[in-house]
UniProtKB/TrEMBL annotation:
<keyword id="KW-0804">Transcription</keyword>
<dbReference type="GO" id="GO:0003700">
    <property type="term" value="F:DNA-binding transcription factor activity"/>
</dbReference>
<dbReference type="Pfam" id="PF12833">
    <property type="entry name" value="HTH_18"/>
</dbReference>
<protein>
    <submittedName>
        <fullName>Helix-turn-helix domain-containing protein</fullName>
    </submittedName>
</protein>
<keyword id="KW-0805">Transcription regulation</keyword>
<dbReference type="InterPro" id="IPR009057">
    <property type="entry name" value="Homeodomain-like_sf"/>
</dbReference>
<dbReference type="InterPro" id="IPR020449">
    <property type="entry name" value="Tscrpt_reg_AraC-type_HTH"/>
</dbReference>
<dbReference type="InterPro" id="IPR018060">
    <property type="entry name" value="HTH_AraC"/>
</dbReference>
<dbReference type="GO" id="GO:0043565">
    <property type="term" value="F:sequence-specific DNA binding"/>
</dbReference>
<feature type="domain" description="HTH araC/xylS-type">
    <location>
        <begin position="185"/>
        <end position="290"/>
    </location>
</feature>
<keyword id="KW-0238">DNA-binding</keyword>
Length: 290
């Protein structure tokens, strides 16, 4: 029996994933070292059979049998194999791949992915028989030349999500209790509630870590510390990522002028927005839209 951290990360091609937005692979520790991505900016769903210990934020859960694990890139996690044999499937994807035209609710607010939600589900034989073929179909489909395979794989991922929402969480899941976890959760929920921007005349009101700290009645240094502790990323990175995501959606799916988009996102001058967007994405808003 082994007790080693999950070190699958270096095996996969992150640039390929970034290009396509998804990657599906089989997990079989008896045949080869399983794949996992070193970068943690992708969502992941793992169907696994084995004896595992999952550490997710400030809680841990020992699993034996078949389970589904939903990993959020905003929450640090690690997996230990407590026995040599582990089999199953995994799908890694970006939020943009799963929700290409939907600006309503981020995956961070999904019951399966949000902080404080239930990321792990134990499956019985009947449930495993429903979920396993969906991973197998994705695995077979991703290497085909079918022009709509992205849409098909997106459908399979959504089917897995909906089938899982029918399940009851395992009794052994430890609920988070510490204050840091609660504050980080409140910050991410408050961040998400600022979007979508529906009207440029009602611009984003919370733009900086200081703004969020004041709204949450905590010192900005404390907010920065607990967000980094719980999620592994700075407060400013979360804010920037969400603003960029909204900017891309507004550029692609509205006819607002770039000046209106800049104002709607809280920028007094379009030049400031242009510089910020280009710094993060490598492209100007105008070239991204075209």
């Amino acid at each position: 029996m082994t007790n080693q951290p999950d070190t699958q990360n270096a095996e996969a091609n992150s640039s390929e994933l970034k290009l396509k937005g998804f990657k599906v692979y089989a997990v079989d520790s008896s045949v080869s070292r399983p794949h996992l991505y070193a970068r943690r900016d992708f969502y992941k769903v793992v169907l696994s059979t084995g004896h595992l210990l999952i550490h997710y934020a400030d809680r841990s859960l020992e699993l034996q049998g078949t389970s589904l694990f939903f990993a959020n890139p905003h929450v640090p996690y690690s997996v230990e194999r407590l026995a040599d044999l582990q089999t199953g499937y995994a799908c890694v994807f970006t939020e943009e791949f799963l929700k290409p035209h939907d600006r309503s609710e981020s995956l961070q607010q999904s019951p399966l992915f949000k902080i404080g939600g239930t990321p792990v589900f134990l499956l019985n034989d009947e449930q495993r028989a429903v979920i396993t073929p969906l991973f197998q179909k994705m695995l077979a489909e991703q290497d085909t030349d079918y022009v709509f395979k992205g849409e098909l794989i997106r459908t399979y991922i959504n089917l897995i999500i909906h089938e899982t929402l029918k399940l009851q969480p395992p009794d052994g899941l430890v609920k988070p209790q510490n204050a840091a976890f609660r504050i980080a959760s409140l910050f991410l929920e408050l961040l998400e509630r600022q979007f979508p921007i529906e009207n440029p005349d009602k611009p984003l009101t919370l733009r900086t870590a200081q703004d969020y700290a004041l709204r949450l009645s905590v010192h900005v240094n404390h907010l920065n510390r607990v967000v980094k502790e719980v999620t592994g990323r700075p407060t400013t990175a979360h804010i920037a990522d969400r603003v960029i995501s909204e900017a891309k959606a507004l550029l692609q799916h509205t006819d607002w002028s770039i000046a209106d988009i800049a104002y709607g996102l809280g920028y007094d001058y379009p030049t400031y927005f242009n510089n910020f967007f280009k710094k993060i994405t490598g492209a100007s808003p105008k070239s991204f839209r075209s």
